[in-house]
Amino acid sequence: MTEPEIGDTPEIDYTAVFRALPGAVALLTRQLLYADANDEFLRMLGRTREQVVGRPLNDQVPDRPNDPAAAVLRHLEAALSKVAETGERDAALQRYEIAAPDRPGASDEQYWSLINVPVFGSDGRVALLLHRVEDVTELMRAREVALSLQEAMLPAPRPVGRHRAAVRYRPAVGALNVCGDWYELLDLPGGRIAVAIGDVVGKGLTAACVMGQLRSALSAVSRVVDGPARALEVLDLYARSVDGAENTTAAETFIDWETRTIAYSSAGHPPPVLLTGGTVVFLDQATDPPLGARPENGPRPQATAPFTEGALLALYTDGLIERRGEDIDTGLARLAGSLTRHRAADPDTLADALLADLLPPDGATDDTALVIVRL
Q1: What confidence category does residue 76 fall into, taking pLDDT thresholds of 50, 70 and 90?
Q2: Which residues touch 9 (CB under 8 Å, ≥6 apart)?
Q3: Residue pair 302/264 in contact by the 8 Å Cβ criterion
Q4: Within 96-203, where are the H helices?
Q5: DSSP 121
Q6: Residue 39, C-beta contacts closer than 8 angstroms, at least 6 positions apart
Q7: Which of 223, 167, 151 is nearest to 373 (CA)?
Q8: pTM (predicted TM-score)
Q9: Is 83 left (phi over 0), alpha (psi -120 to 50) or beta?
């Protein structure tokens, strides 16, 4: 037997490839008869190829209209028929309940991802329908846990003192609705308030868990120190003992109504922005490296800025302003322009307007958190 030379393309057995695909895949005719099914699909059905190929799609489900499986089948038949007619692919997430084998009378919730793709013949018409099935029940359960975790770790929007505030959180596209971005609003002694925001490196549950630890620590320390710089110094020390907290960025402001000043400090975070009348000021005079990234411990910088009644303060994470291949100043200018255009709006309306103006219509590639306070 002659060995193939380097560079030769081996002959591909597409039938073998189809049957070895790791996902559950079947081929159906336009009449919804099984033309073939791969090994994973057969394993899912618990049937042999001879018991499936050539049989109609609805042959696999008992003729009981109220059976949950029958409802799934009706949706699937309609979706496949639409693909056959239009030549356009279809994807859906299907939820249904099945009887729990170990709990008589009870049922378990399941989720299936269904993808139907037309396969065209030489005449350009739909010849076959490729049907892929994936059980995503565990993923959906993880998503529900993640949402509960995120809601538990981030405070609900509420007024701070007698002033109105709005908060927004948007995960990156493809994220599990959890991220390492956080915000905090606190009532402080003396009628002051603290507003903070932070961004943990990374995404998903790991980043969210780190976020929860840092947010809680900053919330506690802010109540007993005299300013945001000192709060970030203590948080920096704490972050060095938390795996995954290195290079977290954070910014915090202490708002004093008696003196009408904002004390602020930043650990490598984009600057808070103050809008008074039509004037936008970025609070960028007290910036230091991120948490855990300073060469040695020591005082962090702190600066103050005056404000007038009715001014707006916005804190945000970099997902709101940064775009790949774009200078950060461009994003900051875009933020300033949007704030100026919508400056008369209430905090909730303004927060929604900023997200609409600044986030890409197809979703951001980075997580975003935003806090708006009317002073």
Answers
A1: confident
A2: none
A3: yes
A4: 137-153
A5: -
A6: 19, 20
A7: 167
A8: 0.63
A9: alpha
Is residue 131 within 8 A of residue 27, CB to CB? The reply is yes
Q: H or E segment at 148?
A: helix 137-153
SS3 content of the chain, % helix, strand, coil (to 5): 30, 30, 35
**Which amino acid, residue 233?**
E
What is the phi-psi region of residue 309: left when phi exceeds 0, alpha when psi lies from -120 to 50, beta otherwise?
beta
**154 has pLDDT over 70:** no
What whole-number distance in Å separates Cα of residue 375 and Cα of residue 370?
16
Query: CA-CA distance, 135 to 143, in Å (whole number)?
Result: 14
Strand partners, 129: 28, 118
Which residue type occupies 214? Answer: L
Rg (CA), the chain: 28
Query: What Å distances lie between residue 130 and 81, 104, 115, 155, 249, CA to CA?
Result: 12, 36, 8, 46, 47
CB 308 within 8 A of CB 260: yes
The total number of residues written for the chain in this structure: 375
| Residues 178 and 225 sit within 8 Å (Cβ to Cβ) | no
Q: Tens digit of pLDDT for each residue in 225-278?
A: 989 999 999 999 898 888 888 889 999 999 998 899 999 999 999 999 999 888
Q: How many whole angstroms separate alpha carbon 80 and alpha carbon 35?
A: 14
Compute the distance between CA of residue 58 and CA of residue 51 in angstroms, rounded to an integer.
13
Q: Which residue reads 């800025």 in tokens? A: 305
Residue 338 CA from chain centroid, whole number = 23
Q: What is the mean pLDDT of the chain?
A: 82
N- to C-terminal Cα distance for the chain?
84
Amino acid at 180: G
More confident residue, 60 or 167: 167
| Number of other residues whose CB lies within 10 A of the CB of residue 109 | 11
Tokens of 149: 């975790």
